[in-house]
Amino acid sequence: MKIFYTFLLLTMTTFLSAQTLKSVQFDGMVHLSQSVALRMLPFEKGDDINKKEVDEAIKKFFRQGYFNDIWTEFDNGVLTFHFKEKAVISQVELKGWKENDDEVKDTVIQIKKGTLYDEKKLEAAKKRIIEAISQDGKIDSVVEIKKEYLENGSLKVVFIVNEGEEIIIDKLQYAGVKALDSDEFDDVIANKEHEWMGWFWGRNDGKMSLPNLEYDNLRIRDLYMQYGYLDSKVAAPFVKVNFDHYTADMSYQIEEGEPYTISKVTIAQSTNVIENEKIKDIISLKSGEIFNIKTFRADSEKIKTLIADLSYAFVQVVPDLKKNKEDHTVEVVFKITPGSKVKIRNVIISGNTRTLDRVVRRELYLGPGDMYSLTDLKDSRNAVGRLGYFDSNTIEEKRIDNETMDLIVKVKEAPTGNIQLGGGYGSYGGLLVSVGVSDRNIWGSGINIGVKAEKSQTTQNYSFNISNPRLNDSDFSGNFSVYTSSYDYNDYTVLSDGISLGVGHRFSRYISGYIGYGYSSNAYEFDSTFDPTQYDTYYFENYDKSSVTISVKWDNTDDYYLPREGFTLSQSFEKAGLSADANFLKSRTNLGYFQGLEDLVGFDAIFRYKARLNIAIDNGYIPLAEKFYMGGIGSVRGYESYSISPTIEDSTGQDTIDGKQVRRIGGTQTFSNSLELSMPLVPKAKMRVVTFVDWGIITDDITNPAKLITNDESRGGYGVGLEWFSPVGPIQLMFARPLMQKSYDKTAAFEFTMGQRF
Asked: Which of 406, 422, 415 lies closest to 444 in space, CA to CA?
């Protein structure tokens, strides 16, 4: 920016003495309106003005940041301000690095269209680009700025990036290591020695991470302190870089010292708000044990939660260590300052453009007038996440004074109306596709309505269902559904018409129960190969089913679609035989365990374990279609849905085992489980990759063992899948391979679903 003060002095010599101002005019001014500019002047029409006042006015205009140059003319009482405004940046481009990444433009360049040209801001953006590249371990990066004036007078700015080179750590050495194995350091540091085939998953590529370099020695020291080495010293690494080949040798100098044993654990409350013994009961550190800094921190958080649950929201827990270097013992002291009890003044819901406020509020365990509780706050956040209506949610604590706070619940709406797709590709059946439409949060009310018109090679299903998880905002829920369907179970087809309804109740934060009634009329249909004279038709008689289902469920997960903590456990019993043909008892048990691994591995990985146990007891008549089958998503991937089953000899069967024609009859006991590891693939697109291993077993006990071909069927599967939160709902694409495959199995290499929980 340049100011022509010399020119100003020359032009103002015509009125060194005060002169009367008749009018003020502005030339070339765009960003300021004339009325605003007039209000900024220290004088007005009719005043006597002088050079000093005009000079101050010019400086004031310059401080607005819109102008490159300002000068004035004074002629016959008319004062004219001439402005040369800065150019407007209308285009910002990035070449040579992340060219199409809009997020980089927003967070790194930080220069938006319509911004006035400012050389300092461009230079600052240039430095941010170089710094961002260096965080990827690249040095000697060069950024040039090209400016081009367009025909409309605006400015096009292009950042031309020449990325530097990555530094590969060839050798990493540790001096002074005796008590620990230096291989353990690889689990905590970011900069690791290059390994052979470092590009392969699970191997170290040796790329230097410059931002982490200054923290790696602290991470090593922290590891030592987990083993009680409180006097350990780990110097910053010595790095020798070969700039000809962009390789580096690194070394650490370590002084271990001796491990410390805990002599005593002391609780020091500035104000006694709870008995010290109750605090000690939750502490893991014990006298006589080797000190562990990780447990020390965890104990501090436990104490904070315990006190905060007593409404002391602003409690401070300051841990202290009193070392005795002579005998290498340490007294652990937890200094607690509770502060005052805090009451919730107001709860504000924001970001819910669709979902009604009351739908969110009824999930919160804290409301206006309640006393603060940290556990209630966390449980509220998880409860909102379990709704499945939001992409994300946070609850901010806004301190009003020492005894009052507001809670700000911020949510980001997620699509809840799904076009539900399901399908797969099997070696026998080819491509299978089904379609349905539903909305789990229609009109933002929390009510779930689904209308399905599904049709695939194996399935036809037309249904309507409606459920309300909170009847009249109470702890009661209700549901109703009606359907007509046709399911192909590989060897036969079941035609069903039915209706169901039920009511549920939430007993606690995590426990809910349900009781429901269902009625269905079911008929079998076979292809032309079936000869009823060759087989006992007992299993294939048309039947009616009238049943009552009772279930209970525990769920303390933190999200509906993608939980990262907690587990689910459900148990249901279905009793059929109420004035209808089918007479049996079914038990279904489902378990899901979810654990985020980000603290352990450094990225958003999620471990999952899922298990399912089903048992059916024949109380008089259990139809074939009411038995259990395995295969496909939800049991054992790599096999077609419903294809894993005990079999019997049947001359009309479509499959052959050991030269005998067989038919699948389902099982009365089945167990299947899955291990999954979900990892981010494209975080911006909410896309993740999952690897999995499935295993299950199904068995049956029939009354005619002479015809029994297979009683127990055990199968496994493994593979990789894609989990994607698409704009139309969650999608799963699964690519699987079978394990323990038999020659007569029906395998499926690909399956997909949409709208289901991961």
From this structure: 415
